[in-house]
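Reminder to self: tokens first, then the designed residues, so the page reads top to bottom the way the pipeline ran.
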């Protein structure tokens, strides 16, 4: 059995689906009852779990668990706290750090060695823009300001605790560092300093469907690494099976896509009648960073190679998932 904690999140839903398709028995936990019902429809067992509540862990099995995938956590994209008025640093530590300790203690007490979680790609944000791929050996280096800062710090602390359990208690913990993950899911909007914003991909798709102009602000050729959600799910499956899985892994598509390529692909795939024009607005500010991560370690340790390395093909699959109706209403 594989336990997926935080299974009702975007990546969690796809990961459970991938595990089930490989014939795994899956126990999924989360806090969204509606998506929990969907997981049970897919073939998983499901119940609610609050990772900060030690008593909830009594619900989990104590034997025949081959590994735990941890996708639960507090992210800036889903918190309503406006840092101009409210400081929610304690919330990040309560959920992301104490919650991780609770999970690790459950695993230690029940002889479960494999635990795979994630971290923030922002932990090396000051290395973005380098001319070479960023490896797992890149020292942590990030800004101590902004709505993502305490999230990054809490994730770093959680990953350090995982390494402590590796060395102190003989666990086999690993964590994935991935950039923005693309795919059909509950992220048409996201929060920035407590205020909702429509995502760039959602805006591009809506305007392409309506035949409206698509604006590209700033430099249209700023490139950044991305990954498709189905590749992320496959990576968790592969890492779970390998005895070499350990520590930090970059988990990206290992491709760099610029804004113009994204707009062109969306127009190609989602145009329904009138074709959108691309309008260039170089005078408008665009804070999109540029970066590329090395995938060598994941390929070496558990044979991971992303299947979706072409953005146009990624968008074709994205549209297919949208039209399938499989995911329905995520809310």
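Designed residues (331 positions):
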């Amino acid at each position: 059995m594989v336990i997926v904690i935080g299974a009702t999140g975007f990546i969690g839903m796809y990961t459970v689906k991938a595990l089930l398709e490989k014939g795994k028995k899956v126990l999924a936990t989360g806090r969204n009852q509606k998506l929990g019902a969907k997981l049970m429809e897919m073939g998983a067992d499901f119940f609610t779990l609050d990772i900060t509540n030690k008593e909830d862990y009594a619900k989990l099995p104590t034997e025949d668990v081959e590994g735990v995938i941890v996708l639960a956590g507090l992210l800036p994209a889903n918190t309503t706290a406006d840092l101009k008025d409210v400081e929610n640093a304690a919330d990040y530590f309560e959920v992301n750090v104490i919650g991780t300790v609770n999970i690790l203690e459950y695993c230690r007490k029940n002889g479960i060695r494999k635990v795979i979680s994630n971290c923030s790609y922002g932990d090396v944000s000051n290395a973005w823009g380098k001319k070479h791929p960023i490896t797992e050996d890149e020292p942590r280096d990030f800004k101590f300001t902004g709505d993502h800062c305490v999230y990054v710090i809490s994730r770093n602390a959680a990953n350090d605790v995982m390494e402590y359990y590796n060395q102190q208690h003989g666990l086999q913990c690993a964590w994935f560092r991935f950039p923005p993950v693309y795919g059909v899911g509950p992220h048409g909007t996201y929060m920035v300093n407590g205020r909702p914003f429509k995502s760039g991909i959602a805006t591009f798709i809506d305007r392409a469907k309506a035949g409206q102009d698509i604006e590209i602000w700033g430099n249209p050729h700023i490139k950044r690494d991305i990954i498709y959600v189905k590749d992320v799910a496959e990576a968790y499956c592969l890492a779970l099976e390998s005895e070499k899985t350990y520590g930090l892994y970059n988990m990206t598509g290992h491709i760099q896509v610029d804004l113009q390529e994204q707009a062109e692909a969306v127009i190609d795939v989602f145009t329904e009648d009138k074709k959108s024009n691309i309008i260039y607005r170089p005078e408008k500010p665009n804070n999109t960073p540029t970066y590329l991560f090395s995938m060598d370690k994941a390929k070496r340790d558990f044979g991971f190679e992303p299947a979706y390395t072409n953005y146009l093909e990624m968008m074709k699959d994205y549209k297919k998932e949208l039209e399938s109706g499989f995911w329905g209403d995520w809310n």
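The chain has a mean pLDDT of 92.
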